[in-house]
Design a protein that fits this description.
Layout (H helix, E strand, L loop, with lengths): L1 H35 L6 H9 L4 H13 L6 H9 L4 H13 L6 H9 L4 H9 L2 E5 L9 E4 L4 E13 L10 H17 L4 H6 L2 H8 L9 E16 H63 L4 H32 L1
Antiparallel strand pairs: 1-3, 2-3, 3-4
Helix pairs in contact: 1-3, 3-4, 3-5, 5-6, 5-7, 8-10
Length: 337
């Protein structure tokens, strides 16, 4: 019986020794690196990281870098940020860069910026070394901002905006797209308020001065250092084009009104022709009454046969005169031709 107990104890001790050896193989190198770098990380902490599925190598190396740079960041802080889904390596690199550049950036600020989805290292680098933004962005549309001066001439401008990151406004601040949109709006406003396009061409820096005075970086994650007008080109004569279109519209309106008057005139003419036909019909009707009246005059004795013949002679004479006058008119027309 004692032999069985000893055997069990021996097996248990062997298992413990084996586990210790495995742990030492897996974590000894990291533990030794931390100790030699004067950034100690306990063996139990390394084992706990493995159980919590934390990348122990990233934590240890980040702590070593932080300690060597003179930063005091605990293992628990790094591990907490890793478990929150943050990029521990980028945060430590950003803190080191900020420390070397004398930028006030705390670990809490850096982790908040990183968890907000911003690249904290790029933000620090941009704060140290400002970057240039093209306005407008050539990858998202036209290469120039088009605006029309008060004299109707279109100008196409392109600006380059130099910005640096404002660390304090990085979380919740607007992005580069807002800067580009505001600068483009300022360019359009400045050109549109200029009396002539020549004034803008003579003094392009008036655009940058007016835009800078508007405080366009308010509420953004950047601080605008300068706005430089890279190019200003003359575009189309928008005013003349609008006048041509207006004249064309006026012409069409005048033509429509003239057509309306012609239609009314044709309708009036048709109405008058109908009235003439009606009057002729009345004359014909009245002429039809003449024979009746003459017959009645014969019956009543108010008209004799000689009176009738004299009337016929007068009518024949009148017809003859009409015929002669028509022949003379025709001859004169032929002579004129």
């Amino acid at each position: 019986m004692p032999n069985s107990i000893l055997l069990v104890l021996g097996i248990g001790a062997a298992i413990v020794v084996f586990v210790v050896i495995i742990i030492m193989i897996n974590f000894f190198q990291l533990w030794l690196q931390a100790m030699l770098s004067k950034a100690p990380v306990g063996m139990l902490s390394l084992i706990a990281m493995r159980l919590r599925r934390v990348n122990a190598s990233a934590i240890v190396h980040s702590r070593i870098n932080a300690v060597k740079a003179g930063l005091h960041i605990s293992v628990e802080e790094l591990e907490t940020h890793y478990l929150a889904g943050g990029n521990v390596v980028r945060v430590v690199q950003a803190l080191i860069a900020a420390s070397k550049a004398n930028i006030d950036l705390s670990f809490q600020q850096a982790t908040a910026i990183d968890l907000a989805g911003r690249d904290v290292l790029d933000a620090v680098q941009t704060s140290v070394r400002p970057k240039v933004i093209d306005c407008p962005d050539p990858s998202n549309g036209p290469n120039t901002v088009a605006a029309v001066a008060m004299d109707g001439i279109q100008l196409k401008a392109k600006a380059r905006v130099t910005v640096r990151t404002n660390i304090n406004r990085l979380v919740g601040g607007a992005t580069e797209e807002t800067i580009i949109a505001r600068v483009g709006e300022g360019i359009v406003t400045t050109i549109g308020s200029s009396p002539t396009h020549k004034k803008v061409l003579e003094n392009p820096d008036m655009i940058s001065k007016n835009v800078l005075d508007r405080g366009l970086d308010a509420g953004t994650a950047f601080e605008i250092l300068s706005i430089d007008i890279a190019d200003v080109d003359v575009g189309e004569n928008i005013g003349a084009a609008l006048q041509v279109k207006q004249a064309e519209a006026d012409k069409q309106i005048a033509q429509a009104r003239a057509e309306e008057r012609r239609a009314m005139a044709r309708a009036r003419e048709a109405e008058m022709q109908a009235q003439v036909i009606e009057m002729r019909a009345r004359v014909t009707e009245a002429e039809a009454e003449v024979p009746k009246a003459m017959a009645e005059a014969f019956r009543s004795g108010n008209m004799g046969i000689m009176d009738y013949y004299r009337m016929k002679n007068v009518m024949a004479d009148t017809d003859m005169r009409d015929s002669i006058s028509k022949i003379d008119n025709k001859k004169s027309q032929d002579d004129d031709k």
